[in-house]
User: What shape does this take?
Amino acid sequence: MNMNVNTRVQEAVALSLDGRPHSVPADTTLAALVATLGHAPDKVSTAVNGEFVGRDQRDACVLQSGDAVLLFQPITGG
Assistant: This one.
């Protein structure tokens, strides 16, 4: 019996977000996570597994199971 190949179960990816368990759909990018959480892309800095990820790299950063994601406010001042 052949199942419809267009039917795909959306898998969840378990990761850590700011030190707490969090899950996202498979193939979620860091940019999509930032947007889903309601953050303006230019108002938050990001790191995955201890490595800084710049705004221009977030679309290419696909989150994987076990990733540790940190969102933080950039430090500015003079």
About this structure: The chain is about 10% helix and 30% strand. Confidence is low (pLDDT under 50) at residues 1-7. The CA atoms of residues 44 and 73 lie 5 Å apart.
